[in-house]
Amino acid sequence: MALSLALGGCGINTIPTKRVAAQTAWAEVQNQYQRRSDLIPNLVQTVQGYAQQERGVLVDVTNARAKATQVQVNASTITDPAAFQRFEQAQDQLTGVLGHLMSINEKYPDLKSNENFLALQSELEGTENRIAIARRDYNSAVQSYNTELATFPGVLWAGTMYKGDKPMNMFGATQQAQSAPAVNFNIAPPGGTAPATTPGSAQ
Amino acid sequence: MRFARRPVGLIASFILAVALCLAGAPARAALTFPALTGRVVDQAHILSPEVQAQLTAQLGALEAKTSRQLVVVTLASLQGDDIADYGYQLGRTWGLGQKGLNNGVLLIVAPNEHKVRIEVGYGLEPILTDALSNLILQEKVIPKFRAGDIQGGVVDGTQALVDQLSLDPSTAEAKAAQAEQAAQSGASPSARLGNSPIVLLMLGFIVFWAVGAVLGGGRGGLGWIFPLLFLGGMGGGGSYRDDDFGGGGGGFSGGGGGSFGGGGASGSW
Question: Cβ contact (<8 Å) for B263 and A126?
């Protein structure tokens, strides 16, 4: 105990602490994406009932969801740049086509006033908001962790006790911010902003 | 040691660390938040003293009864930010909700931007779902706002929130589920369960334990030390989204919860 206290004073706890924080934040990101994924089948079904002619968009959404679900995610995803990029791209693409799907409701008054649709719409809007926040929290947790690995005194511990600790990847702000303006679909005036979907601004 | 030979690198890393500390949150540091002066923070000056007193009493009674902290806030400006983006940070800054329960809620009105939002702390997401929050805004708040009765919309919206938050858990959840029946049926239990920060913390704990066991095993029985280290780090580990900010003033302060993850709904008028 005394040993652990003494070591704690030199920052031996910092790397694992920040690692756990980043992993927890990552779990939240996945959780929110999962939540969104769970909403989609109902959403597609509801829209289908009112907007048969939008088959193309619906197929796009279904495919993008399937693709995003297929991306394998495990504990090493966050430290593997290629795997992380696959995950991010698949999810960003889904964000894009979902935004498109949600924007077509303007053409269908019956759909727009459908109770199920309104409920789904608010859930999806909330989920996109949570995703943006989860990504930002994750980014700041990772930034803190990566910095600890690369700077003194963390770098000493990283080179000795925690050789397995690798820097983690962060989300970018690019596609997501450009492709998801339609999430703020409620009754925002034209030109209303949706910077809630601008993750990564904490960099 | 690499660094013994490269003092320049050491100094450079020091400077980098300091620079990163200072540059930690540039985008968000730009936002300023009003002080938590009471259960009603009327920065935009749209509520009469009588209404403020009435709301304060109502919200105080709610907390006395349920420990849930609902704060009504009007903002003079969103400072160019999205209301949802501003809202969760305000909730975290104020540390609303009791520590561990995270049962804080904000009713945010930005009259100049014509935006309104219900921001829900983690602990209340199951009973104040996005769909129900949206329903309250669409039915109780926005119609009055559109008619020019901002004060009336705030009073009615607060009443609806207090009503929902005063229900016993099962009734409240049934009502919330009703509002989002369509959405609910598709959501997997794992997604719901995973919303709890405690579950996430435990997950993190398990992951760390496993890593510790593996590392410790290869290092001649140092494994016992990892749980201890984890206990030492636990405060920091779970608290990256926790703000122990009290509010101060007016005899009211945030309970130290402050875990807001974007639950709720926004609207405009």
Answer: yes
Which positions in chain B touch A46 (Cβ < 8 Å)?
182
Nearest by CB to residue B207, choosing from A75, A127, A130, is: A75
Please write the tens of the pLDDT for every residue from B80-95: 999 999 999 999 999 9
B245-269: b (≥16 Cβ within 10 Å) or e:
bebeeeebbbbbbbbbbbbbbbbbb
Of A116, A152, A192, the CB nearest to B14: A152
**Cα A161 from chain centroid (whole Å):** 31
Q: What is the ipTM of this complex?
A: 0.71
Contact B186 A41 (CB under 8 A): yes
Contact A25, B166 (CB under 8 A): no
Query: In this predicted structure, what is the pLDDT of residue B216?
Result: 52
pLDDT in tens, A132-177: 999 999 999 999 999 988 888 888 888 788 888 888 998 986 444 4
The Cα–Cα gap between B253 and A148 comes to 33
- Closest-approach residue (CA) in chain A for B212: A16
Q: How far is the C-alpha of B73 from the C-alpha of B258, rounded, in Å?
A: 16
DSSP structural state of residue B41 = E
* Residue from the list A35, A116, A125 with its beta carbon closest to the beta carbon of B182: A116
Helix, strand or coil, per DSSP, at residue A152? coil
- Whether residue B133 contacts residue B265, with contact meaning beta carbons closer than 8 Å, is answered with yes
Rounded CA separation A8/B231 (Å) = 11
Closest to B125 in 3D by CA, of B90, B91, B74: B91
Alpha-carbon distance of B71 to B60, in angstroms, equals 10
User: To the nearest whole number, what is the mean pLDDT of chain A?
Assistant: 80
This prediction's pTM: 0.69
Q: Which of B193, B14, B10, B212 is nearest to A19 (CA)?
A: B212
Amino acid identity, position B188: S
CA separation for the pair B133, B223 (Å, rounded): 47
User: Which chain B residues have a beta carbon less than 8 Å from that of A153?
Assistant: none
pLDDT confidence band for B256 (50 / 70 / 90): confident
Cβ distance A125 to B195 less than 8 Å, yes or no, reads no
The interface residues of chain B toward chain A in range 133-192, judged by CB-CB distance below 8 A, are 133-135, 142, 179-183, 185-188, 190-191
Which residue in the set B130, B191, B229 is minimally distant from A34, CB to CB? B191
